[in-house]
Design the sequence.
């Protein structure tokens, strides 16, 4: 019987991550960053196609008021590629279906803008975010794995969603904020997913 995969970049993202198997998930760590996560996901999906995929993890946002908030994301976009005259940004904005697996009720919606690392420049991030279609939910969150996994699931016709907790603002000290808030974000995610 196909399972619902609960994926994280690294097991340390959620305390007692493996224990979430008792909630009906198959917990899997895929690796940090779009390439590692996508490669590992592809290897696993080639062996068994899941019924649905939920990515849980941390993210950045433009506004400090969003730190420690959890969002449900079904809208994704990729950032512009440096040096490209006309990046195909808007063609790479897309939505996914909610997994059939029950997700925490009443989570606010957001859109993920996938970048290659932690953004330190709020102006650049805001400029890229401004290209995302207006009908996509706000706020725009930054995460390194979600959009790539969403594309893979979309192509394989697997329902996908990301449940992300904001750990930092997009700013020069984003990495320090992330380190400071990482543990508390993991506990918030665990509580939300454990129901």
Sequence:
């Amino acid at each position: 019987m196909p399972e619902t995969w609960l994926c994280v970049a690294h097991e340390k993202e959620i305390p007692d991550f493996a224990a979430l198997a008792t909630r009906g998930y198959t917990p899997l760590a895929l690796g940090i960053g779009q390439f590692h996560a996508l490669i590992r996901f592809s290897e696993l999906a080639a062996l068994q196609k899941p019924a649905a995929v939920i990515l849980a993890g941390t993210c950045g946002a433009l506004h400090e008021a969003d730190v420690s908030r959890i969002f449900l994301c079904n809208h994704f976009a990729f950032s512009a590629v440096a040096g490209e005259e006309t990046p195909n940004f808007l063609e790479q904005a897309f939505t996914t279906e909610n997994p059939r697996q029950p997700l925490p009720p009443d989570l606010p919606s957001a859109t993920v803008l996938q970048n290659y690392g932690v953004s330190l420049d709020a102006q650049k991030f805001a400029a890229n975010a401004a290209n995302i279609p207006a009908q996509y939910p706000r706020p725009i969150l930054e995460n390194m794995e979600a959009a790539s996994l969403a594309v893979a699931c979309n192509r394989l016709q697997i329902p996908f969603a990301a449940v992300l907790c904001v750990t930092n603002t997009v700013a020069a000290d984003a990495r320090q904020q992330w380190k400071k808030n990482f543990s508390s974000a993991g506990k918030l995610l665990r509580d939300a997913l454990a129901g």
